[in-house]
């Protein structure tokens, strides 16, 4: 036994985390989603299943750990996307302050009201997102251009608030929003990679430094971040992000949307079930 679990279970946990890192890094580069839709459910299920952590504690620690893990993944994906000319710098400049405020509000909300309901909220938001994206993969965008800056900043605040609360980085919500405003899919993916940095960096720091470690949290947890899990997945996800970028440039835009929607749908159903039933 080590860390309170058998060697076999520990080995399975580590392998699962490494696989999680591969998929999260690849999807971060391919879809601009920051890896959070993979990290959060993976960490949640591992903390509950292998470490026997209470679901409420497991969810908030999974969220904080996800934000930490997404920092290098988002950096890697954002650098690769920027080099390929897929980043809209004007959007980033316009959204930056509103996103930082949104992160603070989101983290404070999860700090005081976080728990198992976050799993249900995560699943519900992602399920609606996936269905909308899947059904509208070839649809004409709802708007011809981005709205004026005040409206953009409200959108940015909402994206950052929900993303930090759910530990998903920002890209998962940014991509469909930009697509709806006629931003070309590859540009939407590239810009969302940069958006993720404005969510996961301040979000992870707030989770790490402004929260006490919950009683019964997994070993290696500081604040609301499990550093041991991050050590397992971060190097792998960082290396795999450029791989996703390189493959994504050869995929047709509507196919990219469908891949994005399918990934969201599978994970959201599992998380919704965990939050409402288990």
The helix/strand class is mainly alpha
End-to-end span in angstroms?
27 Å
What is the H/E order?
Answer: HHHHHHHHEEHH
Strand order of the largest sheet: 1-2
Helix-residue proportion: over 70%
Helical stretch tally = 10
Q: Tell me the count of domains.
A: 1
Low-confidence regions: none
Mean pLDDT: 80
Strand-residue fraction?
under 5%
* Rg computed from alpha carbons, rounded to a whole number of angstroms: 17 Å
Main β-sheet description = 2 strands, antiparallel
Number of strands: 2
Overall geometric form: globular
How would you describe this protein?
This protein has one domain (7-276). The protein has helices spanning 7-31, 36-49, 55-83, 89-113, 116-135, 149-166, 171-180, 185-209, 227-248, 253-276, and strands at 221-222, 225-226. Helices cover 76% and strands 1% of the residues. The protein is globular. The model has no long low-confidence stretch (mean pLDDT 80). It has 278 residues and is mainly α. The longest helix is centred in the first third of the chain and has 29 residues, at 55-83. A two-stranded antiparallel sheet has the order 1-2. Helix 1 packs across helix 3, helix 2 (36-49) packs antiparallel against helix 3 (55-83) and helix 3 packs across helix 8 (185-209).
């Amino acid at each position: 036994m080590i860390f309170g679990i058998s060697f076999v279970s520990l080995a399975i946990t580590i392998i699962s985390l490494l696989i999680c890192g591969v998929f999260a890094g690849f999807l971060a580069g391919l879809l601009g989603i920051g890896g959070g839709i993979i990290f959060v459910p993976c960490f949640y299920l591992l903390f509950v299943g292998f470490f026997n952590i209470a679901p409420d504690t497991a969810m908030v620690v999974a969220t904080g750990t996800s934000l930490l893990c997404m920092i290098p993944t988002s950096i890697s994906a954002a650098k690769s996307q920027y080099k390929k000319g897929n980043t809209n710098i004007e959007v980033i400049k316009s959204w930056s302050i509103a996103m930082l405020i949104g992160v603070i509000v989101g983290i404070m909300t999860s700090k005081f009201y976080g728990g198992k309901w976050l799993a249900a909220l995560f699943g519900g938001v992602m399920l609606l997102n996936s269905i909308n994206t899947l059904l509208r993969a070839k649809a004409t965008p709802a708007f011809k251009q981005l709205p004026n800056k005040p409206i953009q900043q409200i959108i940015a605040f909402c994206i950052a608030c929900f993303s930090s609360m759910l530990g998903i980085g920002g890209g998962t919500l940014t991509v469909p929003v930009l697509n709806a405003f006629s931003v070309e899919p590859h540009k939407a993916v590239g810009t969302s990679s940069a958006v993720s940095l404005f969510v996961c960096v301040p979000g992870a720091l707030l989770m790490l430094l402004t929260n006490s470690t919950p009683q019964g949290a997994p070993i290696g947890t500081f604040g609301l971040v499990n550093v041991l899990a991050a050590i397992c997945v971060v190097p792998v996800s960082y290396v795999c992000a450029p791989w996703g970028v390189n493959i994504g440039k050869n995929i047709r835009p509507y196919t990219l949307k469908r891949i994005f929607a399918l990934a969201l749908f599978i994970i959201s159903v599992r998380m919704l079930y965990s939050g409402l039933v288990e």
